[in-house]
Amino acid sequence: MDNTTHLDLTYVINEFNEEDEPPSLKVEVSSASTSLIAHSAAKSKWNNDRIAISIRSAEFLHKYFPNSTERDWNSWTWQVKNSFTTSQELSRVLSLSSNEVNPNIDVNDSLPLRITPYYASLLSSEDSCQPLRKTVVPTLNELIFSDGEASDPLGEGHNSPVPNLVHRYPDRVLFLVTGFCSTYCRYCTRSHMVAKEKCHIGTKAWGKAIEYIKAHSEVRDVLISGGDALTMPDTHIEFLLSNLRSIPHVEYIRIGTKVPVVLPQRITRSLVNILKKYHPLFMSIHFTHPDEITPESKEACERLANAGIPLGSQTVLLKEVNDNVPTMKKLMHELLKCRVRPYYLYQCDPIKGSSHFRTSVSKGIEIIEGLRGHTSGYAVPHYVIDAPGGGGKIPILPEYFLGKNGKMITLRNYEGKIFQYPDVF
Ligand code: SF4
Predict the structure, then answer these.
(1) Residue 255 phi, psi (nearest 5)
(2) Is residue 410 included in any domain, yes or no?
(3) What domain range is 117 assigned to?
(4) Which end of the chain has fewer CB atoms within 10 angstroms, the N or the C?
(5) Does the active-site annotation cover 393?
(6) Ligand 1 close to Cβ of residue 185 (< 6 A)
């Protein structure tokens, strides 16, 4: 393990093994209609390993990256290298509002700006209130700190017996394998550690965490997160999974990721071939809004699902982004169509500068009430609050159990009708 290289952003930029990169379809694309041909060709040629490029993406590519090709666009390393990382770069593709021009974004502890060209292609160029744009473009609101906010509200640092590992629950651990994400969410719970110099973690630095897991036979379940593990090269991912899988008491492995949403080009055949060697392997995908369901993200999910990886979603409840029943219902329905089972709806954690994203808890309950009974049970996620200070996830439910009178339980259904149930003693 010690002979492996340190991991930092340079691995993405310079050390990537181009064998991941598929052969070109050799389709010259200069118009939307040609893109459609490329789309269906790529769709039918999984062997060529290209995520189908949508009309929208093709138009964005040709407008803003005229010297690049669809082959470039479909390379996940090209996406990382060409990501927007400053307001100045972003202003090439978006008309930034006065609230979005943030002179302090590169100082102090601020979460940096980083958006892949693919995800930027989904943003409205004019409307700064567009939900997706609000999730990734920094604003001056981030400089407003409110009561109760903290840089590490979940207190993960207090439950970390060795570097990069959080052991809060008895039988499972959280393994933070990298501090890098291809796109930074402005409400990120781990903004205190992602994108920080100290957290460009390397395989060498995983040693203590792996040794800890080996030494703790009660750990049945390892959740790999970060940062985003799927931004690492295949070799690092294989190294990590093979080490974890070789531990007899680790029954299953989970990966939390936003890559299929912000960098679907990363879901290459070679990555999928690695992942499927390490079953049982589960994946929680961070979707936020139905506008993130595109031909590209759908295909990424399909590739993962076809590899036998059970897919779940985790969504953060965000003010004026997804905090209403129609938007949330649409997202949950679209996820199921992509074979992603809605899993968690998180109350937004009180990180510093997050008040513009946070809704009341009653808003979350209202949304769950608007889903439960009104649509398929599979489309209803668990609404949870990750308790500040390290209390873990606490489920929040509307009041369906109204009380007990003698042997009878009083219940309320989704329509508000009252029913009695004879309990058993
Ligand atoms: S993908 Fe996850 S870890 Fe990365 S910025 Fe978004 S919320 Fe944070």
Answers:
(1) -120, 125
(2) no
(3) 9-143
(4) C
(5) yes
(6) yes
